[in-house]
Amino acid sequence: MTKANALLCGFIVLKFALQYLLIIPEYDLHRDEYLHLDQANHLAWGYLSVPPVTSWIATLIKWLGNGVFWVRFFPALCGVLTMLVVWKTVETLKGSLYACALAATCTLFSALMRLNQLFQPNSVDVLCWTTLYFILIKYIQSGKSKWLYLFAVIFAFGFLNKYNVAFLIVGLLPSILLTKHRQLLVTRPFLVAVLIGLILISPNLLWQYQNDFPVFHHMKELAETQLVNMSRADFFKEQFLYFVGAMIVLIPGWYALLVYKPFEAYRLFFFSIVFTLSVFVFLRAKGYYAIGIYPVYIAFGAVFVSVKLKPVWLRAAFIIIPVTIFIPVAMVAFPNQTPEQIVKNAKRFKNAGLLRWEDGKDHEIPQDFADMIGWKELAEKVDAAYASSPDPGNTLVLCDNYGQAGAINYYTKKGIDAVTFNADYVNWFDLSKRYKHVVRVKNAWEREAEIEETSPLFTQAIITDSITNRYARERGATIFLFLDAKVDINGRLAKEIEESRW
Question: Is the pTM here over 0.90, yes or no?
């Protein structure tokens, strides 16, 4: 094994190890992960929330036993592959072994560590952005059409994972027009590549058409309820924080793309980041949407810095800085402390602004961590309520949100298929059953309203339990058992489903 391969293997092992070590068993999966895992039970070419790739990976996880190890393995694998592509990008740019190590260190000790802990489309998205930029570099170097065709395939896969990758194209096209590469856009291989990409994404486009383009409804709702509240200043602040340890190479990398002669052929990459970030800022995008932009610039920066840095001590310092910065960040940004420990050291988390939730108030632990607590408790108590029904086979388990439904379906020992009028679950109701009874999971603040509204529709109403973990975001969620319906439950469900879809 060569020295380079041995060092690369060391980074890979370290990456995998840290992804597992930086989260402790006291935390369950995140609410979003349960939804994505449940998609394996409802395979389709599209969903209200995401395209289909996440469901394909969820199916692999299901085949492997659906254990937490595998749930965390695949996003970690995407992180490892992202780091590998960055390494190969450095090599392609004729960077030294030191440049490879510097780029790998800056990629490893960044926001990607947290991103790669969660089973969401984001890890695949960042991998696709990084790979597409790498392929473009290979094409610029060789001019071979095969790289354009591969670009089309990877873009299609990225599009089928998360529509966010379309912004990469939005940033690249005007950048190409501003450089000598503009003739590429009228070549036959380019047009063939476009056709390949369209063919590969067409099943999802057809699904969108057949379902009245839910992506536009989702984007409209997102813009009205979340993006409208996003601060453009906070967007730039987050970009800095995500890669604060990598700024020692990112800033030189952007500079090098403008003035460094060996990078002249890649100048379009400078324009690309300007255009892409401008679009994100204009649309008030969330900060993490742009994370996929940066790994390739880490590669450019590492190559440039390795050429300019001569003193050994300075080279060592550039390796140590990202690690040193990451250590205090890891003490607050990762679920590696129990809720009790977080409360004990609340000042550290409060100063970092991590205790403030989306309601604008400070809580005992970060919202992201509270979304990883209480799910097993919920599933166990719903199982108990379901088992106490006189006819479980005709008992509906209806939740308030996708986190509740997904967690119940993931942990249940009773074969429950919980649903909700929230997110993709609105399409997953099984109305072939004739429901007589309902296990209802209701948010704590709506407990009394649920009793008043639903109890008259059934012969008997029982509060069986509630979520008691004080740190869970779902704390107080109440579990009702409504028995012997006086009304047609299926008819009411069908009506509610139609009203909830849009």
Answer: yes
